[in-house]
Amino acid sequence: LKFAMRLVSIVRVLCLPKRCGVYRVELNWHCSEATTESQCSAPETKPKSKSATTARLHKQVLSAGLRWLSDAEAVEAVKQNAKERGNDTDFDKLLRDGSDFARLRTEMLTLKYRRQVNSKSFHLQGKGEIIALKEERANLKQKTTEMLEKEEELLDGLLSVPNNTHPDVPIGGVEESKVVYTHGAKPEFNFSIRKHSEIGIQLDLIDCNSASNACGSGLYYLKGALAVLEVALIQYAMQKAMSKGFYPIITPDIVKHDVMEGCGFSPRGDKTHTYSLENRLQYLSGTAEMPLAGLFMDSCLPKKDLPLKVVAFGRCYRNETRGRGQPIKGIYRVNQFSKVELFAVTANETGRESSDMLEEILAIQKEINEELGFHYRVLDMASEELGLPAYRKYDIEVWMPGENMYGEVTSASNCTDFQSNRLWISYYSNMKELVHTVNGTACAIPRTIVALLENYQQADGSILLPEVLHPFIWKETYRHIKPSDVKGLYQL
Fold it and tell me: Would you state the pLDDT for residue 492?
């Protein structure tokens, strides 16, 4: 028996270097102060298992969280920031969970160390000592279970803590958002104007009833000229972004739990708007921002390549409610829609790079809406409208005469290092630094169609689309949509 126990100890020692080697590779693939730019790159083999990526994301959040939880001044600052953003994180519970987790982890590591020391002389122990070691092993298992349970509670709290807020952001709810720019004036009509939902029915362009019967609520069919218009808007927005130096991408419409959580969107809880795939930790993407952020996940980028600017077309899936006030009929708020998204990764050397990129994206959004001939306003969104990841956010609202309201058509957000810290996106500049991420809508198709139908309706019931879209619409009857030219599906 003693010989067998000694043999087991020898095998354990022989296996230890191999396990430590794997551990070193996993820790050190990121660049550090000692590495050169040429060495700073992603590992040859990225973690394939969901659990490995999630563990790393949670380790990053946990490590950062425990640092500021141990600093009373930092806790007060984070608490005040969350309060101003309307965030409902329970900081008293968070502090208790942090303290309990630190205590349990210390106890678990102490027991683990004692077990490792005693295991080396296990074959020399007497019967009573062996029984005590077995009890210690059971105690270690129990402590580890308690620590992991507390870690999950702590992580739930830490993952709900929002990004910092730009000092110029208005404090309060949506009504406190500040109009910082207005373009044009409200159009005037000398006839009775119609809502886009009425136009869509009268010209047989939008069919929500059939979509509801076949697919469910919040969905729609675009028919005839509007089917062509969607493709035209996508081409127009992609071309506009590419002319500004953005690289084109078509994204997947499914993302993993890690990416969604890393971007600051909660796939869990009663308030979630996400669609999940059954029996999988995967979700339908709510915006191309998610797969685009995932594209750079686990990357250490050379500084000379920054900023990286991409434009993507993707489908968005959101289990939307009907919003504030009275429901809006038609396609203003839907559960699936097409969108062209702008996304950029910047350095953080001067502290201005991501702010300048936000202004660059906003300038593109303004140019698109001006070329489409819309009267619009730009809002610096109030703190309670920023969500979790945004440091600052601008919305553009277009005047929609049929609805008699300003409707949001684009948003642009500077997320600073909130997403990069969770997704491990860094760059090399003498030492490893976290990048900043910035995103914005180039064109949300349904709402842009709403604005076009309501602003370009004519007295004779037709729709005369703006000339900037004509190169992307190959048929004259689709550029000027007249009631007399409309042919239904069964009249072709």
Answer: 47
Residue with tokens 């969350």: 82
Q: What is the C-alpha to C-alpha distance for residues 63 and 75, in angstroms, rounded to an integer?
A: 15
Mean pLDDT for the chain overall: 84
Q: Could you tell me if residue 86 is left (phi over 0), alpha (psi between -120 and 50 degrees) or otherwise beta?
A: left
Angle between helices 50-69 and 127-158 (to 10 degrees): 80
SS3 label, residue 186: coil
Contact present, 428 and 300 (Cβ < 8 Å): yes
* pLDDT for the residue numbered 145: 86
How many angstroms separate the Cα of 112 from the Cα of each of 10, 15, 107, 122, 378?
19, 18, 9, 15, 58
CA distance 2 to 7: 9
426: exposed, middle or buried (C-beta count within 10 Å: 0-12, 13-18, 19+)?
Answer: buried
CA 337 to CA 204: how far, in whole Å? Answer: 19
Proportion of the chain above pLDDT 70, given as a percent: 81
Is residue 164 within 8 Å of 386, Cβ to Cβ? no
Lowest mean pLDDT among 135-149, 411-425, 434-448: 135-149
CA distances from 97 to 86, 216, 269, 386, 438 (A): 22, 42, 20, 26, 32
Cα separation, 447 vs 373, whole angstroms: 15
pLDDT for 17 equals 36
Residue 40, pLDDT above cutoff 50: no
Sign, CA torsion 415/272/382/406: positive
Q: CA–CA separation, 165 vs 163, rounded Å?
A: 6
What residue type is 56 in one-letter code? R
User: 368, 348, 468: which is closest to 412 by C-alpha?
Assistant: 368
Cα Dmax for the chain: 101
Judged by DSSP in three states, 490 sits in helix
d(CA 264, CA 423): 10
Provide the token pair at 193.
């104007």
